[in-house]
Amino acid sequence: MAATGNGEIEHLGPARRSDRELAERFRRFAVEECSAESDEGAGSRTYEVLCATVADNPALLDLARGCRVGQPIPNLFFAAVKRTVASFPGSELASHYFRAQAGDRPAPDLGRAFTEFAVAHRAQIVSYLETRMVQTNEVGRCAYLLPGFLTIAAENPSHPLALLDVGASAGLNLNWDQYRYRYSSGDEFGPDDSKVVIECDARNGLPELPTALPQVSFKIGIDLEPVDLSDDEEYRWMQALIWPEHGDRSRLLSAARVVWLQTRPTVLQGDAVELLPDALAEVPKEAALCVFHCHALNQFSVEARERFNSVLRDVSMGRTVYHIPSEGQRVSLHRIVRGTATTLLRARRQVHGKWLAWDTLARVSFEQEQP
Length: 371
What we know:
Helix content is 39%, strand content 18%. The chain is an alpha/beta fold.
């Protein structure tokens, strides 16, 4: 992930974050991300309840104030607490999280248990808030990336794919061709024997796609702080970022880690905008070039985003660039030729890939289709 700074509270220093602004941030998070009524959010009754607990408690707001600049405050705060809870499996809060994963509704004393645990373990929680990042690298997102990759392959039947993942975290999504996909439409793709099985509700079906996965001859990622999943502590942090109710995501991450340990993708460390030109120069000319990213550009500054798009335009003067941005509420596939982009696919999707629904396709300019 690259430079940050879009003016929201996350990009203010801790001293400039007021209780009122922090409380509003948690309340908005509850409605937009945690509510079971939010079709596009992740959904967590536990965190929905705890958002209200935090918003109404000055001590918890003061703790959340210390989140690392540029990081989504509610996500980082709840992950820091959850990671700390894992070190105290006999705690009352650990029992609440265990019951949530089993499907139970939040108990009336959840807020009290959370508050007491957070206050008692403040120092450990703060250490995570100050040093960690929100880097979920959600494997389920491959379900809505796959149609884009297959469409590129269909346009380039005699060429392998070359992949560049911006904001790659551990690079799990670079291993998409080793996973099995099952869609509600009845379509299935990928190796039959894969231990990573991704299921997705294709609400209005899938576009016409080749059934065989294409050859991938080049794959590389870029991230400010790549995650090394061979490090157990790094893996525990990735698990902490998964919300208490989402046992399926936890199991999927565990299976994807096994694949990662067998075939570790290369992830370069550094600012994406700075490293992107050199990384693109390494892509074999005979390969179909695809640059993709999931919820990464929201952490770019406006200037960095403009530079990123400029790099893609510049490269497209000499070769076709396929761009799959998954930002905001949609995922798209653009073909960029000599600075002009054509949209081949565009869909609404759930943030973790639980469902996708195709929009009407249209020809748009690159400048109009900003993530």
